[in-house]
Amino acid sequence: MIRFDNVTKSYKGLAPALDDISLEILKGEFVFLVGSSGSGKTTFLKLLLREAIPDSGTIWVAGRDIGELSHWRVPYLRRNLGCVFQDFRLLPNKTVTENVAFALQVIGRPKPFIESQVAQVLELVGLGQKGDRMPHELSGGEQQRVAVARAFVNRPLVLLADEPTGNLDPATSQGIMKLLDRINRTGTTVLMATHDVGIVDTMRRRVIELDRGRLVRDQARGIYGADLNTSTRGIPAIAAVGNGVDRLDADGPLSGRVATVRARRGQR
Amino acid sequence: MPASLEYVAKETATNLWRNRMMALAAILTVAVSLSLVGSALLLKQAVSRQIGQWSNNVSLQIFMNASATNQELANVRSMISQTPQITHCTYLNHQQSYDQMKTVLSNEPTAVDALTPAYTPTDFRCQLRSPSEAQTVSATFNGGVPGVYSATTPSQSIHVMQQVTTILQTILLVVAIILLISSLVLILNAIRMAIFARRREVSVMKLVGATNWFIRVPFMLEGLVQGLLGALVAVVVVLLSNLGVSYLIHHYKVAVLGSAVLPTHQIVTTEVLVLAVGLVVGVAGSSVAVRRFLDV
After folding, report:
1. String of DSSP letters for A64-84
2. Does ipTM surpass 0.85 in this model?
3. B215 contacts on A by Cβ (under 8 Å)
4. A residues 37-56 near B, CB within 8 Å?
5. How far apart are CA A211 and CA B4, in angstroms?
6. Among 3.40.50.720, 3.90.550.10, 3.40.47.10, 3.30.70.3040, what is the CATH number of B59-153?
7. Residue ranges covered by each domain of chain B
8. Facing residues of A56 across strands?
9. Chain B partners of A89 at a C-beta cutoff of 8 Å?
10. Which tens digits make up the pLDDT trace of A105-145?
11. What are phi and psi of A126, to 5 degrees?
12. What pTM was estimated for this model as a whole?
């Protein structure tokens, strides 16, 4: 579904934001992208959306080399990639329904289709009753559900989430994770950049760790830190969140996948 | 795709309404400048029609007696061909002169009725190497040449009038062009504000994969509508001022200015031009704004 071949990206005069990254994410996987601030997570997502272009290397999305896409085809690439952000990015002057419908309107979908899809997806995210509310009338968790609904309403192949729980309390985050997991089960690939140790450690999905632009770890059923003990120590709240999420993980799509680390340190 | 057409129309209307003060400024500037353009164009056409009627670009006119013989006519012809200052000459026979009179006097039917082709004096219409020679050349023909009634040069007043209108027209056009440029900048700025006001929507649209044209079209349409509305106001202004002028000419029976009343096709052409310029200004202003401030 997503493949990076020796991708390097640097911004003017700085050390590379991404340094010779090669990895592959298969259809239906649920992947955490972890690493401290400035490790290159956001650049990674930007390159996927072709908001930025790599200095070298090739990026494949759904079998297409997105570097080869002409400028006018980029919107069609983005229709395959749903996006969720930490700050929700809802339109404050539109209702919940209008916000979700907007995503379909602006890609020219017919009205009856929009109506049925929006109703369906609002039901999926658990906001079936709140379609007429304005974003500011909703809690943070509900707003993020609207954002997820907007990202998913066009049934993208991949859902990209950039710290979707960054502004939410643990219990609410857990709800959002359940939702992302449900979406993942429909066959949608989910790639989530996060700092949330608890979520990563309890979900036990594939973890890709970046450090100063380098791929340092790619682990199936991984945890946030290099080992479980150090990673969760001192964060007792996680247990409570974890109980809810663990259940979801019972037959995750990744069970049994062998960890592969393809970081190529010191090759340059 | 009717859903997206509806969307584009709605977006354009909302944009215009939200930004109405800026839009109004842009529309009015377009209106004023295009009114000037239209008036200048009509003035130019009216004056050139009128002067053309009077002088037909002739710098020397030799009128024959209505009863001049063929021999006298041939004599004058050879005189003309021997005068080096005359570059070109056409002869209007009785019928042609009569037709000419009919158009000149179209507003004076009684005068036309009194004429018949046979009694209409014929004339030579000549162009001179330079207008300054008109006096000397006309003097030779006025010196008792048999058959010649008189040789005249267009009065000095026509030249003065021509010069005055040229100056007036130039001033009008220069002012109009300056105003057109400022209206283009105003439209550009209005669209820039609209883009800024809707940056959230734009970023979401980019995110969910709206095509570049889909994002741009409402803004371009907004500029187009502003240009067009301004042009429509100008069309009405030009039409009314033209009606006013022709009313005055008819009302006061200023027959000599009869030709300054323009035929419908010339007015329509001018108005279409005014509309087209308004459209171009609107589209140009918004295209620049969209290209510079909407990075899609």
Report:
1. EETTS--GGGHHHHHTTEEEE
2. no
3. 106
4. 49
5. 44
6. 3.30.70.3040
7. 5-54+158-293, 59-153
8. A8
9. 200, 203-204, 207
10. 989 899 899 999 999 999 999 999 999 999 999 999 999 99
11. 80, 25
12. 0.69
